[in-house]
Amino acid sequence: VYRHAAEASRAVAEQIAALIRERASQGRACVLGLATGSTPTGVYAELVRMHQDEGLSFQNVVTFNLDEYFPMQPEGLQSYVRFMREHLFDHVDILAENAHVPDGALDEREVAEYCRQYEAKIAAAGGVDLQLLGVGRTGHIGFNEPGSGKTSRTRLITLDRVTRRDAASDFFGEENVPQRAITMGVGTILDARQVVLMAFGEGKAGIVKQAVEGPISTIVAASFLQEHPNAQFVLDEAAADALT
Ligand code: F6R
Question: Where in this chain does the record put each Glucosamine/galactosamine-6-phosphate isomerase domain (predicted)?
Fold first, then answer.
């Protein structure tokens, strides 16, 4: 628990940078699972700063984003492809072919096969070393809404009403928020060797408590992280406020 989000973000960025450098010194790739949304923006800003000021290179980094709205064109205003370019990819030396974000512009008939291939690409890269997560007010990690099972894999999912309401301002009205998204599954996330979930602000305090101290259940996907051997919750004081 950190006093402020900025401090917490710097600590997580340090951890990621250390992993990237360690892998680079071994001549190995570093595979990162990445999240979008407001929570990780401070981490990305700090990683960009480290690239610019300290020469942190992303040439050995391979990334897989958690999710994307469906349907969504990559150049769409709310697209997670655009988000990742604006916050990270366009500002560091990551190779374009190493940065993966689920494709929201597919024909629906192609999605199931595409999701299988997304999983296969993660496996071919050697699996995710560190998965960065935020948490939604429904307890979702990625877009694994209530009902998502522990063994769920990358797939098309229907977004919860609460999630669509929370995204309403980004889309200029709830009615414009897509009904669905492509997301890595809970099982996909649990396969990462290390998981770092970040949550900031009083609005997350209730769901953080349920995820950390509540029963492990499909009602709160983040609660499955209790069973992960190397999962960290990185919080500011406000998000930690309801913990006992
Ligand atoms: C985003 C994602 C979501 C968000 C969550 C919290 O890629 O997978 O699970 O992390 O909805 O969003 P923010 O950070 O905007 O509160």
Answer: 5-214
